[in-house]
Design a protein that fits this description.
The protein is an all-alpha fold. It is built from 14 helices and 2 strands. The longest helix is centred in the C-terminal third of the chain and has 27 residues.
Length: 345
């Protein structure tokens, strides 16, 4: 009697180059762009440049982590840049040196750094809470709601900035301790490490824990993945969205104060366009506009690669206006790839 031998081995799936190239197209394009930059100017690859890139990317990571949670919850926030600008202007105005001739508050005593930081965080949390309420309770599309807040925040910033007796001029003369709060470094084996990198690392750890180890994080992903299923499962959608937007507000306020200290001044134009860079970094890092998808490491990668490309284009002297075109193309390609993945699922 013959025995029939059956195999338990499953047929191996053939590697599809087309899918691989399409799914990783944005990373490949950015890598090729980086290679071109290095080929044009080999001096780009040095420790000082990468230290500067990490320093600038640190505040951008904080902003991106803020809007990243909102994107995961299937939203967006176009008011990010203007909220950051408002935080920068207010924190700078509260931290001018006591002997500065153009001090906005001439009779204000020297404040501890924590005071303006907490003040601007409270303001941006309030604005972000309004965003969350309008989106979750009034059911306004996040694009429209945050676009309106973008205009409102810019108006508030401009009124605050253009005030008597000195009018609209850069808010400078910042307290040395406030500037060193962001600009100073400490040495590790002779290598200077900016304080900003440490602040960013602390924020990254906190956000990773919140997203991956708490009920808040699970609810945020659930709401973004399928709001109807989340509601049926007992998730308080209103609370989840409110907390997501308010957490973003905390990061905008903190980042805005750090940005003012890093630059050493602030105007009503501070933060302009930051929302585009942050959203682009999130999409490059693998977040989906369809919600429910995204990781903290992905946002870090997206921010770093985007900052490297931006810094590199400046380094080789590319016209700043042309850089806008490059960034726009990157965003379009990244979103197109994301849409393709979603439609395929």
């Amino acid at each position: 009697m013959e025995k029939t031998i059956t195999s338990d081995l499953k047929p191996t799936k053939k590697f599809n180059w087309k899918d691989f190239l399409l799914n990783n197209a944005i990373s490949i394009i950015l890598l090729l762009l980086l290679i071109v930059i290095v080929a044009i100017e080999p001096g780009f690859l040095n420790i000082i440049n990468f230290r500067n890139i990490l320093s600038q990317a640190s505040t951008r990571m904080i902003f991106a982590l803020g809007v990243g949670g909102i994107i995961i919850a299937k939203g967006t926030d176009l008011s990010l840049g203007r909220q950051v600008g408002l935080a920068a202007v207010i924190s700078a105005s509260l931290m001018q040196t006591t002997g500065y001739a153009y001090r906005i508050y001439p009779n204000l005593p020297r404040l501890p750094i924590i005071v303006p930081v907490l003040v601007v965080i409270a303001i941006t949390v309030l604005l972000s809470a309004i965003n969350g309420f309008v989106v979750s309770k009034l059911k306004v599309d996040p694009f429209v709601a945050t676009l309106g807040m973008q205009v409102i925040a810019f108006g508030i910033t401009s009124i605050y900035f253009d005030r008597p007796p000195y009018g609209a001029q850069p808010i400078g003369g910042l307290d040395k301790a406030f500037q060193e709060f962001a600009q100073a470094s400490f040495n590790i084996f002779g290598l200077p490490i900016p304080h900003l990198i440490v602040y960013a690392m602390v924020v990254i750890i906190i956000i990773w824990v919140l997203w991956n180890k708490t009920r808040f994080g699970k609810n945020m992903y659930a709401v973004g993945g399928n709001i109807e299923a989340a509601t049926v499962s007992g998730v308080n959608v209103f609370k989840a969205l409110m907390l997501t937007y308010m957490l973003a507000g905390v990061l905008y306020g903190l980042g805005g104060a750090l940005e003012a200290a890093r630059i050493g001044s602030a105007t009503n134009r501070t933060g302009e366009g930051y929302e585009l860079d942050a959203i682009a970094a999130c999409i490059v890092g693998g977040l989906s506009f369809n919600g429910g998808v995204g990781t903290v490491p992905g946002i870090i990668f997206g921010t770093l690669i985007f900052m490297v490309i931006t810094y590199g284009l400046n380094f080789i002297g590319i016209n700043p206006y042309l850089q806008y075109i490059v960034k726009g193309l990157i965003i379009i390609i990244a979103v197109a790839i994301d849409s393709r993945k979603y439609n395929k699922r």
